[in-house]
């Protein structure tokens, strides 16, 4: 099998594609902060997108924000458009890895994956859309494997904390971990939190199309993963969680799909015992529950019709009660926000047969980090790229389309993230 060397003669280790987007601009800043972590202590990089003036502005802003005026002269700009195949090929040929920030991925993602695979370039994205992620695995895994290309999706807040968090919990457990439930809580400051319109649009089209995901999954023809240990109980659509002392709902994002893909890969490729997973998100008190129910029902109803979708897209702030906006969060909102995943794991201590009786041990871990969408996501994406560049021998033996946990289970990604503001930890003492 071919592999792509990080010491290849290509001019750039990393190309940030979609650098002019709301998220892309923060990925650019994060790459600029991280250049000393590239192979042999240097990182060669460029930014790309469809509008040169916008990309120049991004470099200008990053130069100001980081007090690095040299960015304006040293970082090259590549003009490439998703709709122009040759421009994507020309971009891909110049880089070892493309960090793809152009979304919604269901509309713009596939041509980038295709161009990366055809031109021997690794591809990392921050997609949170299971249909796109699983579709790329179905359609490009074999071709990527032949080319030695790693296509690693969902390397942002969706779904590195959840996916690597389950693996961290398993690695810290002394015995066989059989099930994990995660509870996500988001903290915001006095001005509240906000998510940019790009993610709102991805969510709208994702929900509208959820039926197709079921038929896509059938095409894999997978056997069900074996259930090791007691079967995990599915919680109801809304419940009071004693674990986090607030109301909680099943987490609607990509995490369950991504974690399951990782567990399947590790079971099938490395014969590791699969961990069952349930993902939940804290909602808060009763007032928040009422607001969520109202917004949720309205969203559920409107997303089914193109007229409704158009209204949702036109007025994100109105229909999301201010959670999403076309402007995105302010600097202050980002500074004051943080996330915390708490993982409640159970399993069987060493010497206990997980196929007999009830689990006899528990573990509690946490993954904490700064604001999820535009601080933690760029860090996770860039550290995924740095890991890919520096630890090629610890990646899966062949290229392919992988979840983050499948790609990085044997690497030091968790340690790298811990050095960049994430905190993966075991909760000990009476709280555990
Ligand atoms: N995993 C996570 O936790 C996480 C966090 C944040 C964001 N995201 C995802 O990241 C994606 C981007 O979000 P965002 O809020 O940054 O969106 P955005 O601000 O709308 O950015 C979209 C980017 O795509 C570019 N683009 C659009 N069409 C293009 C084309 N034909 N050719 C080349 N570039 C094109 C835009 O270029 P122009 O500037 O020229 O228009 C812009 O740079 C979304 O899918 C979002 O869900 C995920």
From TrEMBL:
The chain crosses the membrane at residues 277-303. Belongs to the saccharopine dehydrogenase family. GO terms for biological process: glycolipid biosynthetic process. Gene3D superfamilies: NAD(P)-binding Rossmann-like Domain (3.40.50.720). This is Saccharopine dehydrogenase-like oxidoreductase. It comes from Albula goreensis. Pfam families: Sacchrp_dh_NADP (PF03435). Residues 14-152 form the Saccharopine dehydrogenase NADP binding domain.
């Amino acid at each position: 099998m071919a592999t792509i060397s990080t010491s290849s003669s290509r001019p750039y280790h990393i190309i940030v594609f979609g650098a002019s987007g709301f998220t892309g601009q923060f990925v650019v800043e994060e790459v600029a902060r991280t250049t000393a972590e590239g192979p042999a202590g240097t990182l060669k990089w460029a930014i790309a997108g469809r509008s040169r003036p916008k990309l120049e502005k991004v470099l200008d802003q990053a130069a100001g924000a980081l007090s690095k005026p040299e960015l304006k002269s040293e970082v090259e700009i590549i003009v490439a458009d998703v709709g122009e195949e040759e421009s994507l090929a020309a971009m891909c040929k110049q880089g070892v890895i493309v960090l793809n920030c152009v979304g919604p991925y269901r509309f713009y993602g596939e041509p980038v994956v295709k161009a990366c695979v055809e031109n021997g370039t690794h591809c990392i994205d921050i997609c949170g859309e299971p249909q796109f992620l699983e579709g790329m695995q179905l359609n490009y895994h074999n071709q990527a494997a032949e080319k030695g290309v790693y296509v690693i999706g969902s390397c942002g807040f969706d779904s590195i904390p959840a996916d690597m968090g389950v693996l961290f919990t398993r690695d810290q457990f002394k015995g066989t971990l059989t099930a994990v439930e995660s509870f996500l809580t988001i903290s915001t400051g006095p001005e509240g939190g906000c998510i940019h319109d790009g993610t709102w649009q991805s969510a709208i089209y994702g929900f509208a199309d959820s039926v197709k995901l079921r038929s896509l999954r059938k095409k894999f023809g997978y056997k069900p993963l074996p259930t090791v240990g007691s079967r995990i109980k599915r919680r109801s659509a809304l419940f009071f969680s004693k674990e986090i002392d607030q109301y909680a709902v099943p987490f609607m994002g990509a995490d369950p799909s991504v974690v399951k893909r990782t567990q399947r890969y590790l079971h099938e490729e490395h014969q590791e015992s699969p961990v069952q997973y349930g993902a939940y998100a804290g909602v808060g008190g009763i007032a928040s529950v009422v607001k969520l129910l109202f917004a949720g029902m309205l969203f559920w109803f409107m997303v089914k019709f193109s007229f409704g979708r158009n209204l949702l897209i036109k007025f994100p702030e109105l229909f999301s009660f201010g959670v999403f906006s076309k402007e995105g969060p302010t600097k202050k909102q980002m500074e004051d926000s943080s996330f915390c995943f708490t993982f409640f794991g159970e399993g069987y201590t060493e010497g206990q047969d997980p196929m007999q009786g009830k689990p006899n041990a528990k573990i509690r871990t946490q993954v904490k980090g700064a604001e999820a969408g535009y601080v933690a996501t760029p860090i996770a994406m860039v550290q995924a790229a740095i890991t890919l560049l520096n630890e090629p021998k610890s990646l899966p033996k062949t290229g392919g389309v992988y979840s983050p946990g499948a790609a990085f289970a044997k690497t030091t990604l968790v340690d790298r993230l811990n050095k960049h503001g994430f905190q993966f930890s075991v909760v000990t003492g009476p709280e555990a």
